[in-house]
Write a structure and sequence with these properties.
The complex is a heterodimer of chains A (125) and B (658). In chain A, α2 packs antiparallel against α4 and α4 crosses α5 (114-123). With 125 residues, chain A is mainly α. Chain A is elongated, with a radius of gyration of 23 Å. Chain A has helices spanning 2-11, 22-60, 62-65, 74-112, 114-123; strands spanning 68-69, 72-73. Chain A has one domain. The radius of gyration of chain B is 26 Å and the shape is globular. The N and C termini of chain B lie far apart (53 Å). Classes of the chains: A mainly alpha (125), B alpha+beta (658). At the A-B interface, α1, α2, β2, α4 and α5 of A face α5, α6, α11, α13 and α15 of B.
Chain lengths: 125, 658
């Protein structure tokens, strides 16, 4: 049963990363976390501006928001139809940038540690 | 009969596919790992299949039909939660190798104790999520088969519980992917047919927008059943102030209260005597009924009540709101269940006018007078809550790595968007063409009931069969997924870790089966209590609890190295429990099981607690973690590497295990 067998994995000690020194672990984890977090927060801000801005627009400009646009009211069109593609675009952008960051980190750290490089070849399939 | 055949075909297809996929699991797994892109796409279908519950399939259409624009936040929030999941949770959690939220709780803090604490919300959120699935089952069966509400719950809940306890429906990718496509087909195809016969999505919206002060009118003579006092507030009939409404009582009715739809301001004149007139159809004798009336009025069978709206006046002078005079209509509450008839063209009771429906800040977000607060609280609950649902994270584990976890999330967002864009269409069409569902609070059944309005009865039955089968796919997949998550939590975390740590695998399997039956029965019993709550609202509450408990744990746990076990536990417990209590208090107030005179602001914050629950939980986590900073795990750098270092570096533990 899957829900029982997964438990073993959560406890397995991480063998390889231990080979990095404490200082290397700290530097690499901070670098990876900070760069990814900056990207996530940037996208989240754009997304939140749209999401939390729409109620404000509805509140402050009810007239224009209820204009007829192709049978919809403007705000209905924005919320019930156009919000979905907006999130697809943001998600696509995020994944592209996030992959770039991962790639850069990999390239940079491969160069300065032969150990890590060796692990990569074993780890990748 | 035709819808039943569709439903049975859906059940057989799902169970059969499950049995086949288990037997042929070798072939099936070959199929799914054949190529990365195939894998991501099918995995995304499976996640979407498990996620789209009765709330998505039936509830949103019903809530949009009832509340209009305000309810659009639900589908958008359900879908947009995945963007937050993508930005902050999906990649790190997959890399960390956490299979469930309790796994993450234990692994992140090396604390088996915290795992035991964390598991309680699997159950709290799970039960809130199973209640609306049960309601979906009850109302679907009562619509297509005419069964009483409880029979539908007992039969459907019983069948699914039995199937899960025997080991069926255990997160099989193929079955769940099939269910996504079944639901997408069932919501889209019948709509295209109905939309071409009636005048479509924008046509319905345009009808509504061009008559702003009107309400939906009965499309024919309709006989409707109403609840009694024990199901308050679903026993009320609030008449529309736009035109005269005539109600014929098919059976003797006992009325517990007659009041006004709007609270009178001080100094306003009493209702005129002709506002409500009862006429015996056999003798022609008429009686004027005063408003408000003394309690305990009996209306004999075969009487017709004529309800006439009247202008609000103060000493004979009209009360104005802006430039329009305010008109008022009465509201009656039934003491016992009854059956009444309405006439074609009369305004539908219990409905708001078109302008309020199509514009923001209507009867859902505006009901307490704090529409912005209500809207924001709802958005926060839905967007943050998605990441904390116990049955969703499990599926991300089936991705081979963090990168494909992100790609899968992206595809989930596309599949969900394609589905959700259809749900409000049903609400808009339903409001124009089958408004009687508004009168007796059955809007949750609109996707099944609307096709039956067609003149071509056979076509109507077939389309209704397709949507009923889609509804079945919805509550089967979600109820099964939740049952597995909750029973697994019982068997593994409560029985296997706390009660009997030395239990053999056989004993754990037995514990899982017993737990599945127990959880199934409790879910069915809870389902009986929620007949008059909207499905989408109930699921929204599960999100609010998840948002204030698990979401802060995952967010800070993944991104803040300073989070400690005591901090995470304190924030999760306080935030989650306070939100849960707020919601239960609101439900008790709404059912009149609890009488407590609270301000509208308090009531809004009780009904939508996320706006204070999520910040409360986050704040407590930060404060307690700072105080207990010594408890930060010693190998925190290693944990952060596991969460965030690219797999290509070969540092994450799944690669080590090969």
């Amino acid at each position: 049963m899957a829900e029982f067998s997964a438990q073993g994995k959560a406890r397995t000690a991480d063998i390889r990363a231990v080979h990095l020194t404490e200082a290397e672990q700290a530097r690499l984890s901070r670098e990876a976390l900070t760069r990814q977090l900056q990207l996530s927060v940037r996208v989240a801000i754009i997304f939140s501006a749209a999401l939390f801005g729409l109620p404000i627009l509805n509140w402050l400009a009810p007239g224009p928001m209820n204009w007829n646009v192709g049978g919809f009211t403007l705000t209905w069109l924005l919320l019930a139809v156009l919000f979905y593609p907006l999130t697809w675009v943001l998600a696509g952008f995020f994944i592209r940038e996030s992959d770039k960051i991962e790639h850069q980190i990999t390239v940079e750290n491969r160069a300065d540690s032969g150990n890590v490089n060796q692990k990569r070849t074993e780890g990748s399939r | 009969m035709i819808p039943l055949l569709f439903v049975i075909a859906m059940v057989i297809a799902t169970v059969g596919l499950g049995i086949w996929a288990t037997k042929a699991s070798k072939t099936a797994s070959d199929f799914f790992v054949a190529g990365r892109s195939v894998n991501v796409f099918w995995n995304a279908s499976a996640i979407s299949g498990e996620y789209l519950s009765a709330a998505s399939f039936m509830g949103i259409a019903g809530l949009v039909m009832k509340h209009g624009y305000d309810a659009l936040w639900y589908p958008v929030g359900y879908a947009l939660g995945y963007l937050f999941l993508l930005l902050f949770i999906a990649g790190p959690l997959r890399r960390f190798g956490a299979y469930t939220i309790p796994d993450f709780a234990e692994g992140r803090f090396d604390s088996p104790l915290f795992r035991k604490i964390a598991v309680i919300y699997v159950l709290a959120i799970g039960f809130f999520y199973t209640m609306p699935q049960m309601k979906g089952a009850g109302v679907t069966m009562s619509t297509i088969m005419g069964w009483p509400y409880w029979v539908g719950i007992a039969v459907v809940g019983g069948v699914i519980t039995f199937n899960v306890s025997l080991g069926g429906m255990k997160g099989i990718t193929l079955v769940q992917a099939f269910q996504y496509w079944a639901k997408a087909f069932a919501i889209a195809i019948p709509f295209f047919v109905l939309g071409s016969i009636y005048n479509g999505y924008t046509g319905s919206l345009h009808d509504v927008a061009s008559n702003p002060s009107d309400v939906p009118r009965f499309s024919g003579n309709k006989t409707l059943k109403f609840f009694g006092k024990d199901k308050a507030p679903a026993n009320a009939l609030t008449f529309s102030p736009v035109a005269i409404t005539r109600v014929t009582f098919e059976k003797e009715a006992s009325i517990s209260a007659i009041s006004l739809s709007r609270k009178s301001e001080p100094g306003e004149d009493a209702a005129p005597p002709q506002a409500m007139v009862m006429r015996r159809d056999d003798t022609g004798a008429t009686t004027q009924i005063p408003i408000p009336s003394p309690v305990g009025i009996i209306i004999p069978a075969g009487s017709t009540l004529t309800v006439t709206p009247f202008a609000a006046t103060k000493s004979g002078v009209a009360v104005m709101k802006g430039r329009t005079a305010i008109t008022i209509a009465p509201k009656i509450e039934f003491a016992t269940p009854t059956e009444v008839s309405f006439r074609q063209g009369d305004p539908t009771p219990n409905s708001q006018n078109n302008k309020k429906w199509i514009e923001p800040y209507g009867t859902l977000t505006g009901k307490y007078g704090y529409p912005l607060l209500y809207t924001y609280s709802l958005i926060i609950a839905l967007v943050c809550g998605t990441a904390g649902l116990p049955h969703i994270l499990v599926r991300f584990y089936t991705n081979p790595d963090g990168r494909s976890a992100k790609r899968t999330t992206f595809w989930v967002m596309i599949l969900l968007g394609l589905f959700y864009v259809f749900t409000p269409m049903w609400g808009a069409l339903g409001r124009v063409h089958i408004p009687e569902l508004l009168a007796n609070n059955k809007t949750d059944t609109v996707v099944i009931a609307l096709p039956r309005m067609l003149e071509n009865k056979l076509l109507g039955e077939i389309l209704s069969g397709i949507t009923a089968a889609g509804a079945f796919a919805a509550f089967m997949s979600t109820f099964s997924g939740l049952l597995v998550s909750m029973s697994g939590a019982f068997a593994h975390d409560i029985y296997g870790k706390i009660i009997n740590p030395a239990a053999s695998p056989m004993a754990r399997l037995r514990a899982f089966q017993i737990a599945a039956v127990a959880v199934g029965i409790v879910s069915m019993l809870l389902g009986l209590l929620v007949e008059q709550f909207d499905i989408a609202l109930l699921v929204g509450w599960a999100f609010a609890i998840a948002a204030a408990s698990y979401f802060p744990l995952l967010l800070l746990g993944a991104w803040w190295r300073g989070l400690t076990m005591p901090g995470a536990a304190a924030g999760m417990l306080v935030g989650g429990t306070a939100s849960l209590l707020a919601i239960i208090t609101y439900m008790a107030l709404d059912k009149k099981a609890l009488v407590w005179d609270v301000s509208p602001l308090t009531k809004a914050l009780l009904e939508q607690p996320a706006i204070w629950g999520v910040p409360l939980s986050l704040t407590i986590m930060v404060i307690v973690s700072v105080i207990t900073a010594r408890a930060v795990p010693k190998d925190i750098n290693l944990k952060m590497l596991r969460l965030h270092a690219p797999e290509e570096l070969g540092l994450s533990k799944n690669y080590i295990e090969g």
